[in-house]
């Protein structure tokens, strides 16, 4: 049965999309059937997994405004074992177009749950906000995975995020759980990264993944080639760490 994981943090630049791309790809590499769902209008997950804008006709935007069915918007086997539900920039207007629509928090859920059984994992990349799109991801998901960047303000905004998850659980999706926290962009040369990890461990009563994603230039380069890290540089420390994270997620 499919497990749906939303990758969320309203802060930008913390490694959500990098984690969404590479966790999806490494799960697929391990033989898991994966659906990657991109609900960030920026579309970086879509392009980072190698699905080019020109190749995309219908997107999750068309799905949200009722002009496409889920079958129309799933691009199959973009990578072996990995299908994509892409986004496009029009999605940035969805919030406004949905004003006054009934049950607008459940539009993605209602569609994605039609195909849930076809996948082992459905990974949703969220935009950097607590918008109706992120709420849609949280009503769709079984769990929320929160990337935390190893930097000074790491904990900032986190209580608001956790409060949002609790509200969604209470009012919209009773089954929602925290998947856990994953540290990203860890820099072993600085004490700061280590301090952030220790501080979050002490102050946050959440599951924390053992795998810590290091700062690795290959991870930053890969998207411009439209490749996940396991394809771009299979032997890099970035690939190694996302493979270990995938293993942990499978075994959880
Ligand atoms: P978000 O989706 O949370 O906004 P991104 O995944 O897009 O964050 O990451 C922000 C920037 O940091 C991107 O340029 C990305 O390539 C880079 N980045 C993310 N993770 C790493 C990492 N582990 N090592 C090096 N660069 C990274
Ligand atoms: Mg992103």
From TrEMBL:
SUPFAM superfamilies: P-loop containing nucleoside triphosphate hydrolases (SSF52540). It holds the Pfam family AAA_31. Coiled coil: none annotated. Residues 3-178 form the AAA domain. InterPro entries: AAA_dom, DNA_Partitioning_ATPase, P-loop_NTPase. This is AAA family ATPase.
């Amino acid at each position: 049965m499919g497990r749906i994981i939303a990758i969320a943090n309203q802060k930008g630049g913390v490694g959500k999309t990098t984690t969404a791309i590479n966790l999806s790809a490494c799960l697929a590499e391990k033989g898991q059937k994966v659906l990657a769902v991109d609900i960030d209008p920026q579309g970086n997950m879509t392009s980072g997994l190698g699905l080019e804008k020109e190749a995309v006709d219908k997107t999750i935007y068309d799905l949200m405004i009722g002009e496409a069915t889920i079958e129309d918007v799933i691009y199959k086997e973009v990578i072996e074992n990995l299908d994509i539900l892409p986004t496009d920039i029009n999605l940035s207007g969805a919030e406004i177009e949905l004003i006054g629509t009934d049950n607008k928090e459940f539009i993605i859920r209602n569609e994605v749950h039609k195909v849930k059984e076809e996948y082992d994992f459905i990974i949703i990349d969220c935009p950097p906000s607590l918008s109706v799109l992120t709420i849609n991801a949280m009503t769709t998901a079984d769990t929320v995975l929160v990337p935390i960047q190893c930097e000074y303000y790491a904990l900032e905004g986190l209580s608001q995020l956790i409060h949002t998850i609790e509200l969604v659980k209470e009012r919209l999706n009773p089954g929602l759980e925290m998947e856990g926290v994953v540290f990203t962009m860890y820099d072993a040369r600085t004490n700061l990264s280590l301090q952030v990890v220790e501080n979050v461990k002490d102050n946050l009563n959440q599951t924390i993944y053992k795998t810590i994603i290091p700062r690795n230039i290959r991870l930053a380069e890969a998207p411009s080639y439209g490749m996940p890290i396991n394809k771009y540089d299979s032997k890099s420390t970035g690939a190694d760490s996302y493979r270990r994270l995938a293993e942990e997620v499978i075994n959880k």
